[in-house]
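seq as requested:
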Amino acid sequence: MMTAPTNEIAPDDPRLDRFDWSAIGDRPPLRWPGGARLALWVVPNIEHYEYLPAQVGVRDPWPRMPHPDVLGYGLRDYGNRAGVWRMMEVFDQHRIRCTVSLSMSVLEMYPEIAAAMQARDWEYMSHGLYNTRYHWNYPIEAERAAIAHCQQIHLRMTGRPLAGWFSPAASFTLNTPDLIAEAGLRYYCDLYHDDQPCRLRVRSGSLISIPYTMEVNDAICWRRGEEGDDFERLIRDEFDTLYAEGAASGRVMCIAVHPFIMGQPQRIRHLDRALAYVLGHPDVWVATGDEIARAWLDAQPQAG
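struct tokens:
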């Protein structure tokens, strides 16, 4: 029996062996519902960034200048004031039910955004409490408490248990998968290592890794100095490859966007055109993270 997680790392620590390696072409064919080639999930990151962060750990969220960093904060605040509404219009036009990578504080701090997401029946996966509260180097009990806090907000605001987790600002610890599974969540998005889901080894319960992306991700493109047309082309190119491969065995495609980036007026048309291109093909299943996790389990009962 595995012992309780600690911050001491031994060479044989199970936290260093989370999943089996396999070549994607050697696996049994994966079949999505309705014979779809591709499970597409669209993930807007709707976040809150603290104006004056209450705690600064491994990384300062506003390193450009002494706090407050009005330029950094203001750009991200634009996403919740303007960009998110523009993106919602585009998703509505394409009838996309999103999975929101959500700073859980948004549900309490921005009731208008919460109501708009709820009206669309969007799924939420926790992206931590704030996107300026990183989990790197968190002691186990502090991280356990942070996860529980996010669950409590979700349950209180939606009446449903939380199913998915993507750590804030992609910060996490070696204990995160164990703590997520212990808390009863179903899927996890801190790994970006595959085009299909996989089972993770955890100390108790079960956990599935769902492919999130740091490639088709507007934040990464933005940091590289790329523009909306580059992101549109990236979506098309990745889709073409995964869609072709999906004829033999189903694939997952994630499109990760941020309201303060693709919600800008000069970029939104590129997101609209890219989605139109992808959804103009047959056998594309637009799904949420939890739907993908459940379908993968149904397709592979031995993994359940």
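Confidence is low (pLDDT under 50) at residues 1-6.
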